[in-house]
Amino acid sequence: HRADLLGDRRRGLARVNQQQPPAKTPARPEDVQTGFWLWLISLPLLLTGYLVDAFTAAPKHTSVLVHAITAMFAVLLGALVLTFLLLMRSGYRWARTLLSGGGISTIIYTLASLFTVTRQPVAAIVFAVTGIVGCVLIGGGMYLLHRQDGHGFFTR
Questions:
Q1: Alpha helix locations (H) across 1-63?
Q2: Which of 33, 83, 89, 108 is the most buried (most CB within 10 A)?
Q3: Is the dihedral of CA 46, 47, 52, 54 positive or negative?
């Protein structure tokens, strides 16, 4: 009947499509969780090493503006990486790909910079410790994020 199709006053409007239950998102694998935390720990370490290297390697007559721009660049880069980390943790495959490319380039830059740049003793130790530990953490995080358990999680 027409009343059944359009609904009546007591039942409200007729429903053409029944609502589907929300699709379940796959549970976050332990490898993705651990890889995220390894990356997150490496971020302040590598930023610290970069800033120490930038401020100690600068000539004595460098203006405050140059130091401010360097610090702002480090903060913006850290915020960008943190954003990609959060997106990767939510299951975005493209964020994992960008982080992997950035991680490989970070490892190459840090290892090349360890052996080619002359630094003051304290700056050299800070850069070496933060760089080596940060690179190991990034490498471990990339390994965990690309294991078989994580591939099914990155569907977006």
A1: 2-6, 30-57
A2: 89
A3: positive
Q: List pLDDT tens digits, range 24-42.
A: 656 888 999 999 999 999 9
**Hey, what are 59's tokens?**
């000539």
144: Cβ–Cβ under 8 A, 6 or more apart, which residues?
Answer: 31, 32, 34, 35, 38, 150
pLDDT number for residue 2 = 52
133 within 8 A of 119, measured Cβ to Cβ: no
Residue 118: which pLDDT band, with cuts at 50, 70 and 90? confident
Encoded amino acid at 90, one letter: S
For residue range 74-109, list pLDDT tens digits in order: 999 999 999 999 999 999 999 999 999 999 999 999
Query: What's the pLDDT score for residue 13?
Result: 55
Tokens of 93: 């495959």
Q: How far is it, in rounded angstroms, from Cα 23 to Cα 75?
A: 37
Q: What is the DSSP string of 50-99?
A: HHHHHHHHS-TT--HHHHHHHHHHHHHHHHHHHHHHHHHHTT-HHHHHHH
